[in-house]
Amino acid sequence: MNPTTLTIIYFTIMTGPIITMLSSNLFLMWIGLEMNLLALIPLMNNSPNPRSTEAATKYFLTQATASMILLFSILMNFKQLGLWTFQPETDSTIMAATFISLAIKLGLAPFHSWLPEVTQGIKLNVGLILLTWQKIAPLSILFQFYTLVNPALLILSAITSVLIGAWNGLNQTQTRKILAYSSIAHMGWMVSILPYNPSLTILNLLIYIAMTVPMFFVFHMHSFTSITSMSLMWNKMPMALPMISLILLSTGGLPPLTGFLPKWIIITELMKNNNLSLATLMAMTALINLFFYTRLIFSTSLTTFPSNNNSKMYTHQNYKKNNNILPPMMIASTLMLPLSPLLL
Fold first, then answer.
1. Domains of the chain by residue range
2. pTM here?
3. Any transmembrane segments, and where (predicted)?
């Protein structure tokens, strides 16, 4: 792709969520979402092939549907109140439709089915943008107006997302689909605590991004698209084994790594609000998430997959080709748990 075009696309992707976060006008928020949507599609289809074309088409159709529902809610609210912002007097049906549109954009269950398929059909670097930066704009809208949404709707979507993200990730062998279902589960954790302590939603989002970015960087640098391709890491890149293992365990929420921090704080907050059943259910699903991350580590470092003799003759690759962002992101994704007293 032309460098000028690529620069414009990335600038639009960066600007869209910023416009949405800084706006108090719902129409401007919608414009920021649309900038994000239209700028990402050329990146998805940068190397045209049937899979990327299908992924870009699915992404466009689902996101356009969500944008249509959101715009309809905004216009109905303007017709009712004459304001370009939601108010306590806004009709509950309008707020429910708004939440549905944002749930589609975030990939929350039961509107999640597009996310694994789209993630599987695009490159890893585009998948990183889809699963991290693209979540910021819709989540910022939900953060501003969560008090107007029925809490039962938020909790129901959160429970469904956590369960689907955990169970559907068990039978996956493709790393991109595993990361997509992990994203669905993490979104469920963020939404579950929103009615009780919204600041923990922001903390969870930041830690999720800090864990997902280095994982995608490692997968992208070495083209790890399946568990089978990761099984040769022990021979090709032995120095990468402890790094990727720690990141995977942290993403799964194993103490004392960083990924345990949001789960620990969210479960504590749910118990403080006498929501013991939801806290118990989410703790159980966290163990399922940890299982399929442990399976990745097991296939990567503790076993040797059946392979021909030539694959065992790979020379060790020099791991110095990593860029400068990976070491600090690695530290942030694994060693931030001692900061929990300050964050609390």
1. 1-134, 150-344
2. 0.90
3. 6-39, 59-78, 93-112, 124-146, 152-171, 202-219, 240-261, 281-305
